[in-house]
Structure prediction request, 214 residues.
Amino acid sequence: MKYQAILFDMDGTLLDTLTDMQAAVNYILEKYGYPTRTLEEVRRFVGNGAGPLIHRALPQGVDPDREAEILADYRAYYQAHNCVETRPYDGIGPLLERLRQAGVRTAVVSNKPDRTTRTLAARFFPELDGAMGQREGIASKPAPDMVRAALDQLHAAPEETLYVGDSEVDVATARNAGLDMIGVAWGFRGRAALEAAGAPLVADTPEQLLDMLQ
Prediction:
């Protein structure tokens, strides 16, 4: 294969997590007396991590200390309820198995909290060589810091590594880190948004992605 390592986004790329995120967001909003959000609203809010998600879901003008309390509550609730409806997209399992057989190193780099990222990766994708989520001291995507940390873990060079993701954040992340990138149209944003953001290639299915890697 062309690449020795592949870094994957998680939400909207490997896992369909949207329904569980909406349920967790709305549970917290109801708990604190705020209006709930639709699935399409949550779809627009995700991509930059739990903090921006909650900030966007809350009405304007919420006190910062109150918002921080709500965010902590959301993180705890979602960590305990992140596998109710969450499932891998069709074809992801065979894709990762084929990459493993070819000797390609694979890892997740996600703006989800690190604990949640590692929990989901271990449950659904034990064949991965690494999983990194948002953590203190490392700037989140689209900054290149998490990607560079993952490359160090995989002992992979940027020129031999591909980044795969479903959003504008992922396009910018790959660009900032100096990695080749393929967008996936089956995720939260779709082909048009990826192409508008400058994705050089977009795969419609995991099978097509695999063909692009040959």
Q: What stands out?
A: Residues 64-80 form the longest helix (17 residues). The longest strand covers residues 105-113. The chain has a mean pLDDT of 96.
